[in-house]
Every structure is written in structure tokens, then in C-alpha cells.
Amino acid sequence: MRLSLLFTSLLLLSFLTSCSGNSSPSTQQSAALSPSATPNASGAPNISTAPNISKAPITPNPSNTPNERIPDASQSPNKSNKSATPATEMPEAMPEDFAFSVRFGVMGKNEINTFEGTVTKDLVVKGTAQAELVLTDSEKADIYARLRTINIYRELKLEPDRKYCAKTPFSEEHWQIRVDGEVRSFSWDEEKCEITADAEQLRELRSYIFELVQAKPAYLELPEAVGGYD
Fold it and tell me: Where residue 186 sits, what CATH number does that domain have?
């Protein structure tokens, strides 16, 4: 009887031992597969956490920041661009740089040019001839005074009102006058059969100057014109 109980106790112990050795296989497999439960040297499992990704500071987007208004240079008042009030009369005293040129006649082939110190004569079929021109200081002063009387600083009326007349050939005049570094230009012609009062004053002055030039020895030596304009 005792042997029977001992044998039964051994069987029961053997059964319990085998059960405890095979318990929770799934737990052992999951533990073997899980990287988070890897034991360290101390025997305690290492609990793995998600990697710590440091976030860089966010730089503000320049396009989202308010832009400071930059003054527009083109809208800034520029005192240097303010021009002085133009003179309405020629200086009383003749400036040292006073000079002029005038082309006249048919097609403007004649020229008196004190800028270059030359006079050009229209020889018609023979072309043109040129000579040196020297005006005395008194002659230049006289011409300047006559220009000042006309007052070329004002707005001259050089275009006639008459529109329905035309002639050919016709005379024309082209002036360039320098006073105090400023050059003014004037032109008129007789194509419309009449000229204005201002153009007549310029023509009278040009005729006066031409008479002075024609008396110069250099001009007298120029060849005679051949032919004419019909």
C-alpha cells in the first residue's frame, strides 16, 4: 500500500515538473523575437524606446515676414533737378563765348560761320568755295547788340499763317547762336510765299552781316558764281 502511494506521488511530481518546463511557449517565443526585451549583463531586460530625433529650430520664412517699405528714390524730391527759371532777355554785355552761324540762300549753300571762322560761297553750277573769316570785336559787338534788340530769347514766330501757296526755288535760313554756353537754333524759309515779322528781322540782320563779309579781302578773292536758279 505504501509502495503504491509512493509510486503515485512520483508520477504526480514528474507530471507537474514536465508541465512547468513546457509552460508559456508562446511567451518564450515572443520574448526571443522581441528586441525590446533583450537582457543586459545584469540580467535585467533593456526596455527599448523610440529613437530621440532632435528637431532643428524652425527658421521663419522670409516671405511670411512683413517687409519694411523702402523709399522709392524716383519719388524722392531731387533738388538738383530743379532747373532755374530761363532768362527772357539776352545779357546786356556780350559774353566772351558769343558765336553764330547762318546758312542762307537757295538750299542754304551760303554760310557765315564764326564758330569755325569761315565763310562759304555758293557758286551754283561750280559748287561752293570757302575762305577764312575774321570779324573784329566791334563788328561782333554790333551784331550781338542787333540780336539783343530782336531778343532771340523770346519765342519767335517763324511759321507763316498762309498754307496754300508754294514756290520754287525758295530761299531759306538756318541760324545757330551761342550765348553763355547755350546754343539756340532758328530756321525759316520762303516756300509759302511769305515770311513772318520775326523771320523778316532775322533776314535783315543776315543781310547786314553779309554786307560786312562781302567787303572782306578774303571773300573778294573767292571765284564768281556761274549760273543761277530758275
Answer: 3.30.1560
